[in-house]
Amino acid sequence: MKTKQLILSTVALAVVTSFVSNLALAVTADDVICTKCVGTDDIANFSISKDKIKAGAVTLGKIRNNAVIAKKIANGAVKTAKIATGAVTSTKIANFNVTNTKIGSRAVTGAKLATGAASVSHVAFVNENTSLANAIQCKLSRSSGYAYYLTAGAGTVSSCDAYAPIQIPDGVTITGLNCTFYDNNGANSLNASLRRVNTTGGVQVIASTPSTVNSTSVQTVSKSASFSTPLPNNLVDNNTYSYNIFVSYSASDFTTLGANARMYRCEVRYNQIFKIILPL
After folding, report:
1. Is 128 in the same domain as 261?
2. Confidence class of residue 138 from pLDDT cuts 50, 70 and 90?
3. Quick one: which of 11, 66, 117, 271 is 20 to 30 A from 216 by CA?
C-alpha cells in the first residue's frame, strides 16, 4: 500500500512540475500569439500623453516594431526624461510618423541628432581686398587643384586675404570648421574663420581655426564645439544672414610666398534634426 501511494505521489508531482514548467515557458516565450493583448487598434488616438508615461519607462523591449504611429501620440508628449537611452531605434517607429509637433521642446539632444557637412572648393575663393592696388598685386591662381597667390607683380601688399561664400542648410546647428591648407613658408601662416553677415554689413565670427605650421605636408586646421560648449551664433538663419569662410594670411611680402601657401578646401560641420511632416 505504501509503495502504491508513493508511486501515485510521484506521478502527481511529475504532472504538476511539467505543468508549471510549460506555464513558465508559455509566459516567457517570444513567439506567443497573444489574443487578448493590447494592440495598436486598442489605443485611442492621441491617448498617449506625457502624463501617462513614467520617466524612463519607454525602453527597447517595450516597443513593438513599427508600433509607434503619429496619431497615437499627443502633440509634445515625447520628452527627454520619458525615453531610456538607446530605446528608440529605426525599426520601432513607423515611417514618417515622428513629426515636429510630436516632439517636446529640446527633447532631442546630443547623440539623437544627425550630422552633416557643407564644403567649399579652392575655386570659390576670391581676393578679399578690392582696392585697385590689391586687385593688381593680389592675384589668385585656382587651376592646380588648390588656390594660391601669384608672386609675379605681387609687391609687398600685406592684405592679400581671401574669402568664399558657403551655403549651409537653414536651421542646423554649426559644430565645427575644418580647412585644408599647405604651408611651407616659415615666416608666414594661414588660418580660417567662419563668419555670418547681416543685411546691414554687420559681421559675426562663429568659429576660427588655429594657424598653420610650417610643413612639407598638407595639413587640416580645425575648430570644433562640444555639447557643453557650443560655438557662438551657431544656429543657421538664412533669412537674416549670409555665410562665408575668410582665410587670413600673416604674410607681409607675397613676392616670395606663392604656392608655398595653398588653399585646398574648407568644410563646415553641423547637427540637424530631420523633421518630416505629413498628414496624420
Report:
1. yes
2. confident
3. 117
Note whether 56 and 81 are within 8 A (CB).
yes
Co-location of 56 and 85 in the same domain: yes
Residues 6+ positions from 73 with CB-CB distance below 8 Å: 46, 48, 102
Cell of 260: 608655398
Q: How many CB atoms lie within 10 A of CB 197?
A: 15
Q: State the DSSP code for 258.
A: G
**6 occurs within a structural domain:** no
Provide the domain limits for residue 188. Answer: 115-272
- Tracing cell 549670409 back to the chain, one arrives at 242
Of 192 and 130, the one with more pLDDT:
192
- Partner residues linked to 270 by β-bridges: 116, 174
Cβ(113)–Cβ(91) below 8 Å: no
SS3 4: helix
Q: Check whether residue 212 and residue 141 sit in a common domain.
A: yes
Q: Is 207 exposed, middle or buried (0-12, 13-18, 19+ CB in 10 A)?
A: buried
Q: What is the mean pLDDT of residues 108-128?
A: 78
Question: CB within 8 A of 58, min separation 6: which ones?
Answer: 82, 83, 84, 87, 88
Q: Are residues 268 and 133 in the same domain?
A: yes
Residue type, 251: A
Same structural domain for residues 173 and 268? Answer: yes
Q: Let me know if residue 73 belongs to a domain.
A: yes
Are 198 and 250 part of one and the same domain?
Answer: yes
The answer to whether residues 146 and 266 belong to one domain is yes
Total domain count for the chain? 2
Cell triple for residue 128? 578679399
Q: Are residue 123 and residue 158 in the same domain, yes or no? A: yes
pTM of the predicted model, to two decimals?
A: 0.59
How would residue 139 be classed by pLDDT, with cut points 50, 70 and 90?
confident
